[in-house]
Amino acid sequence: MSGAVRVVIVDDHEAVRSGVAAILSTDPRIEIVGEADNGFDAVTLCAAQRPDVALVDIRMPERDGIWATERITAETGTRVIVLTTYSADELVTRALAAGAHGYLLKSTRGAELLQAVHHVAAARHVVDPAVAGRLIAQAVATEKAAPEPQLPDVDASQLTPRELDVLRLLADGLTNHAIGERLHISVTTVKTHVGALYAKTGVTSRVQLGQLGSALRSTDSER
Predict the structure, then answer these.
(1) Alpha-carbon dihedral of residues 205, 67, 101, 24, nearest 10 degrees?
(2) CA dist., res. 57 & res. 64, Å (int)
(3) Choosing a second label site near 115 at 20 to 30 A (CA), which of 91, 165, 192, 218?
(4) How many angstroms separate the CA atoms of 185 and 47, rounded?
(5) Domains of the chain by range and CATH?
(6) What is the number of other CB atoms lying within 10 angstroms of the CB of residue 195?
(7) Which value, to the nearest 10 degrees, does the dihedral of the CA atoms of residues 60, 66, 67, 68 take?
(8) How far is CA 109 from the centre of its chain?
């Protein structure tokens, strides 16, 4: 990425926004392009300014940070770091499921916050060490307890060429927005194709769609 990382700050407390802005302003490679105090205004701001990263609190009036994160990541290319005081596993899981690239507590030191902004701008994921350990333990326990899902047999001839394109890109772990950019189609169109893939394949998760895409790619390479 060339140039400064463009950032918006979303928090319903002005003092918090000012404190975060003061930290970000110490890095000449970061440019603050706007602030909002609720989730609804955050979505509007990101749509207008197209920042690289949005720092978003969870508990806010009107629309909360989870709602804002889902809308921002679905409708813009902005990546979200949730910055909050809440460390409950359920909130962390919901934020990441909504599309957040990062989850940090407000106790995070300034240097770590700056580093996180740059990491997320570069499409990496960042999770606060205070919650990461629990997430890993939970994921391991879930993986051990869950039976290995069986992928259905899918006849590629039943899929349209564009659905096959989307399926292969899902195998690369791309988001709907990234798929849209790669294929030069809208996010809404991508969602339509993903919905059709769910209906035609019978799988129940995006992970399984990615696995089908990988299997399809392996079949293609053998021909």
Answers:
(1) 180
(2) 8
(3) 91
(4) 18
(5) 5-141 (3.40.50.2300), 156-222 (1.10.10.10)
(6) 10
(7) 70
(8) 23
* C-alpha 125 chain-centroid distance: 9
Contact between 137 and 92 (Cβ < 8 Å): no
CA dist 84 and 39 (Å) reads: 14
Give pTM, 2 decimals. Answer: 0.63
- C-beta separation of 56 from 82 below 8 A: yes
9: left (phi over 0), alpha (psi -120 to 50) or beta: beta
Which residues of the chain fall below pLDDT 50? 1
Backbone angles phi, psi at 4, to 5 degrees: -75, 150
Structure tokens at 75: 């409708």
Q: At what angle do helices 161-171 and 176-183 cross, to 10 degrees?
A: 130
Question: What 3-state class would DSSP assign to 107?
Answer: coil
Q: Hey, is 56 helix, strand or coil?
A: strand
Characterize the bridge pairing of strands 53-56 and 79-84: parallel
Q: Where are the beta strands (DSSP E) in the chain?
A: 5-10, 30-36, 53-56, 79-84, 102-105, 126-127
pLDDT at residue 131 in the model: 83
